[in-house]
Structure of Acyl-CoA synthetase:
Amino acid sequence: MSQAQTFHPYIQAAKTPDKPALIMGGSGETITFKQMDDRSNQGAQLFRSLGLEKGDTIAIFLDNNPRYFEIAWAAQRSGLYFTCISSRLTAPEVKYIVEDSGSQILITCPALADVAKEVKATTTLDKYYSVSGSIEGFEDFEADRNAQPAERVADESSGADMLYSSGTTGRPKGIRPTLDPDMPIDVDTVLRMILGGAGGFTEDCIYLSPAPLYHAAPLRWTMTAMAIGATVIVMEKFDPETYLQYVEKYKVTHSQLVPTMFVRMLKLPEDVRKKYDLSSLKFAVHAAAPCPIPVKEQMIEWWGPIIHEYYAGSEGNGLTWINSEDWLGHKGSVGKPLHGVPHICDEEGHEVPVGEAGMIYFSDTTPPNYHNDPEKSQKARHPFHDDWSSLGDVGRMDEDGFLYLTDRKAFMIISGGVNIYPQEAENVLITHDKVADVAVIGVPNEDFGEEVKAVVQVMPDVTPSDELAQELIDFCHTHLSKIKCPRTVDFDPELPRHPTGKLYKRLIRDRYWGKKDSRIV
């Protein structure tokens, strides 16, 4: 019987201690695998000295900071939950997550000092720490950590992230996996197997992460890449040309992006796009939001058939995958299942025939456990299959077993009794050369209940006008039936889009329905 494979940065630290585990793209700060291992051990020792036991929780409220992984690995190897909080949130929103998660320690940085100090003033945690500089009233995490020995804690076990959904349709939900206090820290994972198999990740890879580390995909993929032994390059903030520069500079082999990043790169001048050598790039994967077909076609033409896509959620209750070749034969699909079995069901929960749209459920996986919210946990489950669960997305399956996303059920527009999925119009309008970003929503209509409206962010050199609004409506009509197209277009200087690519459509929609709760949570 073969021995199970193990993966963790400590393994690479023993093999090649001076190899970079992390390079910050902007500053160039480099952390070797030995430094990562030593600092995470010291962090674990510090957590134990503070009385934190297996199953306890810490909160990480940071920008893309070089200390991020030192802290996350310290929590992972001491059996803790680590709740990573969006750096874009307000103090009340951070306070809600800190308290709801049961965090005993908050770790932040001077870049977020204003919000952090307000959170400290309204909460009663055991410790408030700052890294990468000082904040008045906060203790120095690095000083306390560095005073600890770099040996492994005696009772190591695998911790886990406890993340909160992005709240595009309401208050965020904490996703708290079950922890086994006897689980080794180097145990193989489903994500590692996917990255090693479908992704071709090895210890020789150079992985570029352009997204915020507090989000599930960037956090988990970067940590998994490090566990495999790859070097991770982290962008402090995404910029389309800088991304291309880093691919060339660091000879990046693997990367994960979101469709809005594709759009921004494609709208760079052609001479800029052709300026950089991208030949090292062997694998690029995207997720988090639907990718318009023309955008993906252009990316495959530019980068070659190295682009992959997956559909999943922070909940981890299912995952589909598709490579470039399969996508070109099934355009618009998000692939076949790699984790879980998809089922398409009608409003009553009955499975619908192949080709018909319905709610997407996954079976053969663990349904999500939303912390402190049994009602939401139950709502995610199928009406009469308790082990089937859904993220609230609508889609269909084709005869070849490929899944296609239609839209989120919460965003569906019902106009005169007809169901309209706004994603279709959004996918058309984003390809217009004067459109930087777009949201299509339903707004009140006395006769039909709702009508379709587009809210558009124009490109920097474009001036909004009534003429442009009509041009965009006409453009949509050339690609879609009239009922799916906006009747009106409004312009917005900047749409509320999460850095991970998700659009806070609820906030836009609420303006037109007179709702006052406009928090980005």
